[in-house]
Amino acid sequence: MDINITLPDNSVRKFNNELSGYDLASDISRSLAKDAVCIEINGQLTDLNTLIKEDSKCRIFTSNDQTSLEVLRHSSAHILAQAVLNLFPNTKYGVGPSIEDGFYYDFLFENNIKEDDLLKIEKEMHKIVLEKQHFSKEFISDKEALKIFSNQQFKQELINTADKGEGVGEGQVSTYKNKDFIDLCKGPHIPNTGYLKHFKLTKLAGAYWRGIETNPQLQRIYGTAWFTKDDLNKYLTRQKEAEKRDHRKLGRELKLFTTADELGPGQYLWQPNGSILRNQIEEFSKSAHINNGYEFVNTPHIGRSILWETSGHLDHYKEGMYPALTTEDTDDDYYLKPMNCPFHILVYKNDIRSYRELPIRYFELGSVYRMEKTGVLHGLLRARGFTQDDAHIFTTIDNLNDEILNLLTFSIKLLNCFGFTEIEADLSTRPNDSIGEDKDWENATKSLEEALNQQKISYKIAQGEGAFYGPKIDLHIKDAIGRRWQLTTIQIDFAQPNNFSLEYVNSENKKVRPVMIHRALLGSIERFTGILIEHYAGEFPGWLAPNQINILTVGKVDEYLNFIISKLSKYRLNIDDRNIRLGEKIHESRKNKVPITVIIGENDAKNKSIAINYLDGSEEKDIDFNEGIKSINKKLKKPVFKI
RNA sequence: GCCGGAGUAGCUCAGUGGCCAGAGCAGCCGACUUGUAAUCGGCAGGUCAGGGGUUCGACUCCCCUCUCCGGCUCCA
Questions:
Q1: A392 in catalytic set
Q2: pLDDT of A357
Q3: What is the pLDDT of residues A354-405, one digit of tens each?
């Protein structure tokens, strides 16, 4: 019987016996056989040792393919579990998938292990790797599986609930075995454990079984695995790069912001340098809003409980709010605001509104306070007190689509000005705990989707991730090292206008309900600043830098210095005319990440010349001062916001 | 909130039950008067996160609390 195998280049190879993926690879070339990791047979990814028994379309994956890397990491997780069970035989094991850059496995140990134990486990893994144990796949019945995993509660649960794709199917499960270790798994795996050469266990953390908070908490071991030593090292270097960008570290070094135990967690103090940066961001945002049809409002930080009862916050969000402020003088409780919307609504309600006024767009840099769980706090990126570039738009249903579309454009252009050009969206739909009519939710979700399509932004649907009062669009940006951050949120709200009985008078002189849009574009100023710091690694674009120009002098140049200062007076300048070595001044200037370092010495005074150092290491030397100022103006130019 | 780790000078970190707790950087004082990535010398700086306990003796061991870090869950 002939077997015809079609390869990706559409060439066909004939064989007269059934053969394994490895045989096929060997038949093509020796190097391919050496590199092959797994194989796709008729669209089905599987092990390299799978027998091909009939005419098939095949594609062999080598260590160069991303798919192989995922297989390697999944196998690494198995080897990790195997090592753990060798060392701690009474451990219960959960699940162990491959993830971005690595893998993990969740365990319930008899006694919780410590970080030091990771080294021991890593050693045991190396032993298993050296033995080049083969992975073999087997299908067994549920019954048999329950027997094999009789003392493994998590595996039992997986077999019984049969929905997680861990090799569990109807009436039967697939397992993988290497030496004495067996796991539920649909595969595929690397041919043998020897394929795992370059790996490292990276951290130990807690994780709830199946990610559910009420389930027991397991210990999760994270690792990373790569096909080459070079790739592993590159990954480790990348991790270090990310550490260097940490906004908490840079914030301290550049004296941008600080905190104090006395303030309580999640509250930050902006130092003068940070305040300059922050003010630049806020001023830019404000002027963009002024020029785009927003009216500014200002509202207090606290409100009576009736307000939060009306808005539904006390029903749906109480645990996210700071506890009530009570006094003996009044029966009323007051609450710190976790959102600005109820206040903006009160401004709206202060007057009878006509359809001619709509849409009304109220903007405020509004500070809010949210009782985030201590474990989630993360510098400026997740703080308890923060300021939103917040606006609430009250519109007729007819104008809703236009408003959403305008908002998307507004936000994208604004983010572009700060250097974020790669933008994607999430469309979040109705969650379980929510208020409002089904029909309204449907319509609102549809408007958002239409706007996204018109703007041609790539987006994905986040099922059930909406706010309790309406669906939303979130915009995510990609930073300089490829990480995604959520910034803009645009939320439609049919509920609050009902809660507060909002009205406007339409053209037929009837009172009708407006629709409300909540939106924050940069999101939280704190968070946005944190992301900017990490994106630019503290080397901000000239217009944002707290100190824009450092002028370093060499020798006696007072008169010429004053002349140069007069030419640059519109910028934030620092003069370093100390009598110390130039090298030290330059070192300091670079350390402080000042975008422009100007050097003038006696020669420059004589020649009306100037030298400029930039943070990227480039420099202009002995150039005419006019030319120098032109370069500086260019480098420090503020972007123009235009829709 | 949960699991694990950590908290020593402004910052980065040494110091594993035994004189009075150290270094580098930063700060202050002085010398040097400087042309491209840190000049030299001196001084000052500490309730070793806070509280309790064990001990003749605790930064060090134990308990509690607080805060920070890595995750999990959460993020209206």
A1: yes
A2: 94
A3: 999 999 999 999 999 999 999 999 999 999 999 999 999 999 988 998 999 9
Cis status of the peptide bond prior to A431, with omega within 30 of 0: no
Residue A447 phi/psi, 5° resolution?
-60, -45
Say which nucleotide is closest to residue A469, CA to C1' distance: B76
Is A271 a known active-site residue?
Answer: no
Q: In this predicted structure, what is the pLDDT of residue A167? A: 52
Residue A121 CA distance to nucleotide B59 C1' (Å) = 32
Determine the distance between A578 (CA) and B30 (C1') in angstroms. 16
Query: Residues A78, A220, A278, A341: which is the catalytic one?
Result: A341
Report the distance separating Cα A533 and Cα A281, nearest Å.
Answer: 12
State yes or no: is A344 an active-site residue: no
First to last CA, chain A: 68
Exposed/middle/buried for A79, CB within 10 Å: 0-12, 13-18, 19+?
buried
What are the backbone angles phi and psi of residue A362, rounded to the nearest 5°?
-100, 125
Q: Determine whether A370 is an active site residue.
A: yes
Q: What is the 3-state composition of chain A as percent helix, strand, coil, each rounded to the nearest 5?
A: 35, 30, 35
Which nucleotide is nearest to A384 if distance is taken from CA to C1'? Answer: B75
Length of chain A: 643
Residue A170 confidence class, pLDDT cut points 50, 70, 90: low
Distance in Å, residue A267 CA to nucleotide B17 C1': 40
| Residue A58 known to be catalytic | no
Is residue A164 over pLDDT 50? no
For nucleotide B69, the protein residue with its alpha carbon nearest to C1' is A378
Distance of CA A93 to the CA centre of its chain: 29
- Tell me, what DSSP letter sits at residue A470? B
Determine the Cα–Cα distance for residues A405 and A450; give it in Å rounded to an integer. Answer: 9
Domains defined for chain A, CATH in brackets: 3-62 (3.10.20.30), 69-241 (3.30.980.10), 280-532 (3.30.930.10), 549-635 (3.40.50.800)
pLDDT digits (tens, 9 = 90+) for A439-461: 888 888 988 999 999 888 889 99
Query: In the annotation, is A496 catalytic?
Result: no
A472 is an active site residue: yes
Show which positions of strand B are touched by protein (CB under 7 A): 1-5, 11-12, 32-39, 66-76
Kindly give the residue spans of alpha helices, DSSP state H, lying in A131-265: 142-148, 153-161, 229-244, 247-253
ipTM tops 0.85: yes
Q: How far is the CA of A323 from the C1' of B54 (A)?
A: 40
User: CA-to-C1' distance for A591 and B49, Å?
Assistant: 30
